[in-house]
Specification:
Elements (H helix, E strand, L loop, with lengths): L1 H22 L10 E11 L5 E4 L3 E5 L2 E6 L2 E3 L3 E6 L4 E8 L7 E9 L4 E10 L2 E2 L4 E2 L2 E13 L6 E6 L2 E3 L3 E10 L10 E5 L4 E10 L2 E8 L6 E9 L2 E12 L4
Parallel strand pairs: 14-20
Antiparallel strand pairs: 1-2, 1-3, 1-12, 3-4, 4-5, 6-7, 7-8, 8-9, 9-12, 10-11, 13-15, 15-18, 16-19, 17-18, 19-20
């Protein structure tokens, strides 16, 4: 009898790690690369005081938490989430770009295996004055449930640029920028810029396909030699290509 129990325990010890390895691609033990539908009840210090919000989706990708409405997603601030096997916990501190000066934090507990979770959200805005009137400070909070709707979610990403280098004091025409998980034909980019700013300038932007943009690039005489980042603002997303373009010395 003892031998039978020992064999069963050994089999379980071998099977559990194997099960975890097979299950992980389906996000059984992780929320990374998942997006969740949500529905909450909320209170705000301004009308309407009580409200229901079932339009927001919450996505997780590479230690960033995204808030999405109608396909537009944004992330801002800091995020920390931990996968504990049975449950995952996420804490996010953010600033809403859709409403300047609105700050908040969210806390969520999710069970990736069942695809269920709960979250709370607390936000506030300080007193704000324009040339015409002043708006009082306020706050609000939400409590809601979450349902996982996608196990293989990926936000828009930078892929490459061609050409990927140019000389100081020159203009390159028909530069191509490639992305993934974008729909530029339906929703063109809002802006293309570089970091550091004001050293190269973009003009004549044309959408070629859902994942390809063409534009002209003017490189100033004072652009620093070395690699610079490209920044594409697309809906609520900010797509960043680190070291995407290299500025080199002029050869003649």
């Amino acid at each position: 009898m003892k031998k039978i129990i020992l064999v069963v325990l050994m089999a379980a010890m071998v099977a559990i790690p194997c099960f975890a390895q097979e299950a992980e691609p389906d996000k059984i033990f992780s929320i990374d690369g998942t997006i969740w539908d949500s529905c909450s009840k909320g209170f705000s210090s301004e009308p309407p005081f009580l409200y229901t919000d079932c339009e927001m989706e919450i996505g997780f990708y590479q230690k960033r938490q995204y808030f999405c409405y109608d396909g537009d997603c944004f992330w801002d601030g800091s995020i920390a989430y931990v996968n504990l096997g049975v449950v995952s916990i996420a804490l996010c501190i953010f600033e809403d770009p859709g409403r300047p000066y609105l700050y908040g934090s969210s806390f969520a507990i999710m069970q990736p295996a069942s695809g269920l979770g709960v979250y709370s959200l607390l936000y506030y805005w300080p007193r704000f004055c324009s040339p015409w009137h002043c708006s009082p400070a306020g706050f609000g909070f939400e409590i809601g449930n979450m349902n996982k709707i996608n196990d293989n979610w990926t936000p828009p990403q930078f892929v490459s640029m061609s050409p990927h280098q140019g000389e100081r004091g020159t203009t390159i025409t028909d530069v191509r920028l490639y992305t993934s998980n974008t729909t530029f034909l339906e929703k063109p980019p809002d802006m293309i810029d570089f970091d550091p700013p004001y050293v190269v300038y973009v003009s004549n932007i044309n959408v070629i396909s859902d994942t390809e943009i063409a534009f002209d690039l003017a490189i100033t005489d004072y652009a620093p030699v070395g690699f610079i980042d490209v920044i594409v603002q697309y809906g609520g997303f900010v797509i960043i290509g680190n070291d995407a373009f290299e500025v080199i010395e002029k050869t003649n």
